[in-house]
């Protein structure tokens, strides 16, 4: 059986009067690659510190493979962390940094050498063993931090914002490196990040935290296509938001929005009652140029060219604007000032009860 | 502008160290005479009259060697005591919350607002047979008769440690405070127990501060003679005291100057040594 299943139950952590984690419950399967996603203040960093053992929870349990580790000190947990700042020991060589954790397990001599070499090979650091942390690049430092944590063969590897200190070019490379490491090792990887793009790109499961609670847990596709709440829909990906009132719920939902023709929507799940206020969300890439469901005319008020795609700002009526994105495969689809017909499938509209704000 | 900034300390050193040292060196090569000034000129009748006779005399008379050894011994033990007490103090202050650090550091520096001599006399008041400590211990029934702690070598140790402790605490605190707390967390995460974290991460990274603090204590402690004079018994005089006596009591400026030169050379050695050892440590700190 795979090891490294993590679950937390009723996890609560307060700092003074601030409740940072509010009875959080979450399960992470062994061997998976899970992203803990959230804005700053969502509690994701506190959760990381609790799981690593740097803080003790006020309430709740932290179970690693079924055993409660909440009272196990950090040095005794089979969990290792790659720090955001990497936290390499500046007074030690790269090899000594990697050997540090192994020495704590009493590993020495030939075995120590072998394990250090193995860890360095794993992250392709060969030949840098005698360097000091200040003599290597940021990307190399990150790989040392990874090797140092992975050398311990933890059941669970925590990654704290691993891309934050890397420049753009290195990020994509690092992403595929992390995916390769995860495939090779089968260790449970838990990534903590505020960057939804990073979470979607890397993880096979995403847990979105919002104000100390779990907002939604699922595949990246679940969170993007079937967000459980307006908060999730807004945090993951881009969204056009309109507020309206349900006028009819026979067959499709008919939602009246001020200033424009009613919107027809077929959201999955239960329909909100007639007369209630709802927020309607439409992803920019679901808006088609041409006839179809919800067809209406729009005036292009702005075009942002982004290379592989362009983003169009469309005025549906006075004061009602939405954004649409189209790939640039066939060139730019519309010019500023042009009057075009746009539409979107009724099933593409996400409908949430309550106001849009 | 850059040149000026680098030039200022150089000018300072030249004016307040180089020039006086050159004068002392010059006097150390001449001979004592009764007159004004109380030493022979280096150049007379168109020829160089200087000699190393004073330095030869220092080697001849055991008194000087003993004084130097006594001073070095006192400086080493004071430095050791300050390190043993000062490091934990600095570590404790660096470990408190940000809110407490400034007031605690202010408390460390607080003794400086009173005169050094007053503070040493206060210790006499505390430690003498009819003093506070003796009286309290007697009234508690811990000791029978009065406790004569002054004058004693113990009193000197207390006085020296007390006087120089802030010079040890402050640089160590400065280096501890700079250490990224994530490093200790990383060490713990990798399986290090608290003591191991301390010895493997905290101590090596605070070594530059401990070295600086040790120098700040050691160097002035070698020349110190007020504390041993006031708190110690009539034993071997300290080198600082001997220089004083040669200058003012015996009016043998050349001999006193040669002693000062020897002392300076002795003090320059540990500084040069620490500079050498500091370079790799500083490299690691980057």
Description:
The complex is a heterodimer of chains A (357) and B (286). Chain A has helices at 44-52, 94-103, 109-122, 138-150, 168-185, 196-202, 220-225, 230-235; strands at 6-15, 18-28, 33-37, 59-64, 67-68, 79-82, 156-160, 188-193, 205-210, 213-218, 240-248, 253-256, 263-265, 277-282, 288-289, 296-305, 309-317, 320-327, 339-343, 350-353. Chain A is of the alpha+beta class and 357 residues long. Chain A folds into two domains: 6-233, P-loop containing nucleotide triphosphate hydrolases (Rossmann fold, 3-Layer(aba) Sandwich); 239-353, OB fold (Dihydrolipoamide Acetyltransferase, E2P) (Beta Barrel), CATH 2.40.50.140. In chain A, the strands form four sheets. In chain A, strands 6-7-8-3-9-10 form a six-stranded mixed beta sheet, sandwiched between helices. The longest helix of chain A is centred in the middle third of the chain and has 18 residues, at 168-185. Chain A starts with 5 loop residues before the first strand and ends with a strand. The mean pLDDT of chain A is 93. Chain B has a two-stranded antiparallel sheet with strand order 1-2. Chain B has 286 residues and is mostly helical. In chain B, a hairpin with a 2-residue loop joins strand 1 (43-44) and strand 2. In chain B, helix 8 (181-189) packs across helix 9. The model of chain B is unreliable at 281-286 (pLDDT under 50). The two termini of chain B are 27 Å apart. Helix content of chain B is 76%, strand content 1%. Chain B has one domain: MetI-like fold, CATH 1.10.3720.10. The interface between A and B is medium-sized, with 28 and 22 residues.
